[in-house]
Design brief:
This protein has 10 helices and 11 strands. With about 250 residues, it is α/β, with parallel strands linked by helices. The chain has a 5-stranded parallel sheet, with helices on both faces.
Length: about 250
């Protein structure tokens, strides 16, 4: 039996940039009775709080089993019950020079490919400290617009490949529906999984991961390449169905 269930966030636990549903919140609460749970995704911690934490109406002691890894595992937060706060365990931040280089390359690459939005909904490029994220339509674009922008992933793949040529020594991966994530080399979701293995004294075989970007070049792929058992999902409903099956089997 697995000891830890790990998840991507957008399009795995929730519609992109949206709070988890009541159904997902109830299911995660049940899962936390049985397993350690990790959420590892490209967004900031604040996004995790809005999308997941604020939607979980559970006893504080259950939060001790929840491991949050924003910005693709380049940061790690654990709940401190005495203070009632989430405390950062590490942050693999990019240097100022790396950030400037990444931002310049992403903008130039997007413009070369005709993918630079003239009227974005919010910032196109966001500095998340340990990760630079390119969002083609802007950070605040609607889920509907994001899903329609690149349904087969070819635009993101082209941008990722072009930007990576000018960013040796850095990780460049497809993120959400419209995003590209750049982190320090070797600091990806597999890195986050290794941190959990060390923290909980478990093995790869004790972990089951669910994500929607498990194809090569996707930001979930490093987990698969690391040798952890993975389940590919397309939307949050797929994840709920799989979790309900797991709960039914262990009861």
């Amino acid at each position: 039996m697995k000891k830890l269930l790990a998840f991507d966030l957008d399009d795995t636990l929730a519609i992109t940039k949206s709070p988890i549903s009541d159904h997902m919140a109830e299911t995660l609460a049940k899962i936390l009775d049985e397993f350690e749970v990790c959420i590892i995704s490209g967004g900031r911690f604040e996004q995790f709080k809005t999308q997941v934490i604020d939607r979980l109406h559970i006893e504080p002691h259950k939060l001790n089993k929840l491991h949050l890894m924003p910005t693709c595992g380049t940061r790690y937060y654990l709940y401190d019950q005495p203070s009632g706060e989430w405390k950062q365990q590490y942050a693999e931040d990019l240097t100022k020079q790396q950030k400037e280089q990444i931002i310049a390359v992403l903008e130039a690459s997007a413009k070369e490919l005709g993918l630079w939005e003239a009227h974005p909904a919010g910032d196109i490029i966001e500095d998340r400290g340990s990760q630079i994220t390119f969002s083609a339509l802007g950070q605040k674009a609607t889920p509907e617009d994001k899903y329609a922008w690149d349904p087969d992933g070819t635009k993101k793949a082209a941008l990722r490949d072009l930007a990576a040529q000018s960013l040796p020594g850095l990780e460049v991966r497809a993120g959400g529906s419209t995003s590209i994530d750049v982190t320090r080399e070797g600091i990806d979701k597999a890195y986050g999984m290794q941190k959990l293995i060390d923290e909980l004294d478990i093995s790869k075989d004790d972990i089951l991961f669910m994500g929607d970007k498990l194809q090569e070049g996707g930001n979930d792929y490093p987990v698969k390449a690391f040798g952890i058992e993975c389940l590919d999902v397309d939307r949050w409903e797929d994840t709920v169905n799989r979790l309900e099956t797991i709960l039914a089997v262990i009861k």
